[in-house]
């Protein structure tokens, strides 16, 4: 079993910055990717950014150049630095770990990010 614990998030004005972190614990084996997804009210959950075990990153077009994903703590912690935030970034952000071995996805409980105009 894998547990994901998120921290960060909150309320910020447009143009501001926030940093999200997520630490994984439990039975984590082999190659995997960690990342962040978000879900705004009335919308489907969407990919924000991912990073693999070897550091390969991927970003949604809407956040590329503004958000930076990184991985540390022996690969068990993933952080998302969010800069130049806009109200369109308002959503619940979910941490994800995808196992390349089992193809199973694990999810955090979600953390609210609210950007005021």
Write the layout of secondary structure elements.
Elements: E1 2-7, E2 10-13, E3 18-26, E4 32-39, E5 46-52, E6 57-59, E7 67-72, E8 77-82, E9 91-99, E10 105-107, E11 111-116
Parallel strand pairs: 2-11
Antiparallel strand pairs: 1-3, 3-8, 4-5, 4-9, 5-6, 7-8, 9-10, 9-11
Number of helices: 0
N- and C-termini, Cα separation: 40 Å
Q: Quick one: overall form? A: globular
Radius of gyration: 14 Å
Beta-strand proportion: over 45%
Average pLDDT over all residues: 94
Structure description:
By secondary structure, this protein is an all-beta fold. Helices cover 0% and strands 57% of the residues. The chain has no helices and eleven strands. The chain has strands at residues 2-7, 10-13, 18-26, 32-39, 46-52, 57-59, 67-72, 77-82, 91-99, 105-107, 111-116. The strands form two sheets. Strands 2, 4, 5, 6, 9, 10 and 11 form a seven-stranded mixed β-sheet that branches. It has a four-stranded antiparallel β-sheet with strand order 1-3-8-7, with no helix packed on it. A hairpin with a 5-residue loop joins β9 and β10. It is globular and about 45 Å long.
């Amino acid at each position: 079993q894998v547990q994901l614990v998120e921290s960060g998030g909150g309320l910020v004005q447009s143009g501001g910055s926030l940093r999200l972190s997520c630490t994984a614990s439990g039975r984590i084996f082999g190659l995997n990717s960690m990342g962040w997804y978000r879900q705004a009210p009335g919308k489907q959950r969407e990919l924000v950014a991912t990073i693999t075990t070897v550091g390969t990153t991927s970003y949604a077009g809407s956040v590329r150049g503004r958000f930076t994903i990184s991985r540390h703590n022996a690969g068990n912690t993933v952080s998302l630095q969010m800069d130049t935030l806009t109200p369109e970034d308002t959503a619940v952000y979910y941490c994800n770990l995808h196992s390349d071995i089992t193809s199973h996805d694990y999810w955090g409980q979600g953390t609210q990010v609210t950007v005021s105009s």
